[in-house]
C-alpha cells in the first residue's frame, strides 16, 4: 500500500529529532573536549580504573537484560 506524503510526517519528525540531538551532542563534545582531557591528565590512572569498572558494570547490566529477555519472553 502506498502512503500519502502526509502519513510520513511522524517518521520525518523522528529522524529530524535524532539529527538535532546528535548535532547537539557533537557540538558539546567539540566545545567541551578540553575539560575531560584535563581531568585525565590530572587523575589518569584513577579515571582509567573507574572507566573500566563502568564498562564492566554496563556490560553485566546489558547481559542481564538480554538474559532476562530470553528467559521471560
Fold blueprint:
Elements: H1 9-31, H2 34-42, H3 44-72
Shape: flat
Order of helices and strands: HHH
Number of domains: 2
Task: Tell me the fraction of residues in β-strands, as a range.
Answer: under 5%
Major sheet summary line: none
Give the end-to-end Cα distance, rounded to a whole number of Å: 32 Å
Number of helices: 3
Given as residue ranges, the uncertain stretches (5+ residues, pLDDT < 50) are none
Descriptive account of the structure:
The chain has 2 domains: 1-32; 44-73. The chain is built from 3 helices and no strands. The mean pLDDT is 84. 0% of the residues are buried. The protein has 73 residues and is mainly α. The protein has helices at 9-31, 34-42, 44-72. Helix 2 (34-42) crosses helix 3. It is flat. It starts with 8 loop residues before the first helix and ends with a helix. 84% of the residues lie in helices and 0% in strands.
List keywords for this structure.
single chain; about 70 residues; mainly alpha; about 85% helix; flat
Q: Gist?
A:
The protein is mostly helical and 73 residues long. It has helices at 9-31, 34-42, 44-72.
Amino acid at each position: 500500500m502506498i502512503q500519502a506524503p502526509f502519513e510520513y510526517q511522524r517518521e520525518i519528525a523522528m529522524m529530524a529529532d535524532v539529527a538535532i540531538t546528535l548535532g547537539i551532542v557533537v557540538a558539546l563534545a567539540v566545545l567541551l573536549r578540553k575539560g575531560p582531557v584535563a581531568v585525565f591528565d590530572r587523575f589518569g590512572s584513577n579515571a582509567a580504573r573507574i572507566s573500566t569498572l563502568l564498562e564492566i558494570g554496563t556490560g553485566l547490566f546489558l547481559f542481564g537484560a538480554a538474559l532476562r529477555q530470553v528467559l521471560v519472553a
